[in-house]
Amino acid sequence: MVERYRGKTVVVTGGSTGIGAAFAERFAREGARLLLVARTGAALEALARSLEAKHGATVRTASVDLSTADGPNEVLEAVSALGWRADVLVNNAGFASYGRFDAQPRAQVLGQIALNVQGLVVLTHAFLPQLLERRGQVIHVASTAAFQPVPYLAVYGATKAFVLSFSEALWAENRDRGLDVLALCPGATETPFFERVGAEEASLGARASPESVVDAAMKALAARRSHVIAGLGNYWTAQAARFVSRQAAARLTANLMKPRQAPALPASGARR
Ligand SMILES: NC(=O)c1ccc[n+]([C@@H]2O[C@H](COP(=O)([O-])OP(=O)(O)OC[C@H]3O[C@@H](n4cnc5c(N)ncnc54)[C@H](OP(=O)(O)O)[C@@H]3O)[C@@H](O)[C@H]2O)c1
Question: Per the confidence metrics, is the pTM higher than 0.85?
Fold first, then answer.
């Protein structure tokens, strides 16, 4: 493996499990030093120590809730406290909430926007000056959910459409300034994501490995692409939405995504 990132500093959000952990592994293998960010400090520390042992990489962690107003600034401060400047920002942390929109607690609805949209935008805004100065790279983890409405994952799908649109705009604004921006659009991937969402049934088709998803991202980044859909099957599924009406795409997706069991009612007292 060529150490293309030797001497580079990489910040990975959601860098404790799943796709984020696979990014951490890949960048450590390619010689980078890393700041891994998530809420659960123990999981971050365990991964950091194993990457240091395996790759001799320098790996630091920051236990931060990126859905809070202060979260993104805490990450910026953690990087400067280390005396580092970021060359690569991987905005990967995200979550979904599954079921009929009106049956979802409002805190969950807004939490997705706070993390998947606001946290990502603010973190990118905070890091952009140093990333531009270092002619760096930004990876935003979107989803194939970005390409059509996703009933029963309505808010999640909308947040990912935002991430794709936002990333492509930043790609065009910054490509002549030496900064690469990539939207990575995975389909179903083998991570704790669906279990956490309580939506195993919303995972359609075979799941890709996080490593294959990261591999697709790294190739697209090297080719300076604005977005990549990981996996050929996912590529064609995403294209299919362009050949039917938007109504048909929404209805077809609703049929595929509809919960087989009635969604649980929110606990009494939950904010609605
Ligand atoms: N798995 C899939 O099928 C799939 C498909 C398409 C796109 N994606 C996207 O890929 C990204 C990574 O998901 P994954 O599949 O790897 O899921 P995952 O294994 O559940 O990982 C999510 C990561 O984000 C962190 N996180 C969650 N909430 C956070 C918060 N408020 N602040 C900071 N960190 C937070 C989690 O750690 P803590 O809980 O400790 O904070 C964890 O490290 C997400 O953006 C997801 O939408 C996933």
Answer: yes
